[in-house]
Amino acid sequence: MTFVVTEPCIKCTYKHCIDPCPVDCFREGPDFLVIDPEMCIDCNVCATECPVKAIYQDKELPDDQLEFIEINRRLARIYPSATNVKVASAEKDEWANVRDKRHLLELPEST
Ligand code: SF4
After folding, report:
1. What atom in ligand 1 is closest to the CA of residue 24?
2. What is the spatial distance between Cα 62 and Cα 87, in angstroms, rounded to a whole number?
3. Cα dihedral sign, 92-106-84-35
4. Ligand 1: which residue has its CA nearest to atom 4?
5. 3 CB near ligand 1 (under 6 Å)
6. What is Dmax (Cα atoms) for the chain?
7. What region, left, alpha or beta, does residue 13 occupy, with left being phi > 0 and alpha being psi -120 to 50 degrees?
8. pLDDT in tens, the chain (111 residues)
9. What values do phi and psi take at 66, rounded to 5?
10. CB of 18 sitting under 6 A from ligand 1
11. Which domains are present in the chain?
12. Pocket test for ligand 1, best of 24, 46, 72, 81 (most atoms within 8 A of CB)
């Protein structure tokens, strides 16, 4: 099993989840974080830290977020390790309240 970052994180990325992870399995893209499923030890520390509740265990994902299992897997291969540098901005706060953001996430053709 693994934990999975889902749609609410897109363009939000508060990053409260990164430091508490004991195995450094977060990866960071321009507007989104993902969890490397090969590294996650299923400890549940990160999910409780996320202020927008974007992180779920894979077996507890809402039906409309199931595609994020594959999205995390694919992007973890190409995103670099996440930094804990936090950028607070009014824009992030606005995006935190937007739920329909999946179309804004750029995915590579094939990974
Ligand atoms: Fe890291 Fe634990 Fe979250 Fe997995 S569940 S990403 S190991 S903090």
Report:
1. 1
2. 28
3. positive
4. 40
5. yes
6. 35
7. left
8. 999 999 999 999 899 999 999 999 999 999 999 999 999 999 999 999 999 999 999 999 999 999 999 999 999 999 999 988 877 778 888 999 898 999 999 888 765
9. -60, -30
10. no
11. 3-83 (3.30.70.20)
12. 46
43 lines ligand 1 (CB under 6 A): yes
pLDDT attached to residue 111: 56
Pairing of strands 55-57, 33-35: unpaired
CB atoms within 10 A of CB 76: 22
Report pLDDT for 110: 65
Q: In this structure, what token pair is assigned to residue 85?
A: 């540098």
- The helix/strand/coil state of 109 is coil
Predicted pLDDT of residue 58: 98
Q: What angle do CA 24, 62, 86 make, to 5 degrees?
A: 35
Q: How far is the CA of 13 from the centre of ligand 1 (A)?
A: 16
CB-ligand 1 contact for 24 (6 Å cutoff): no
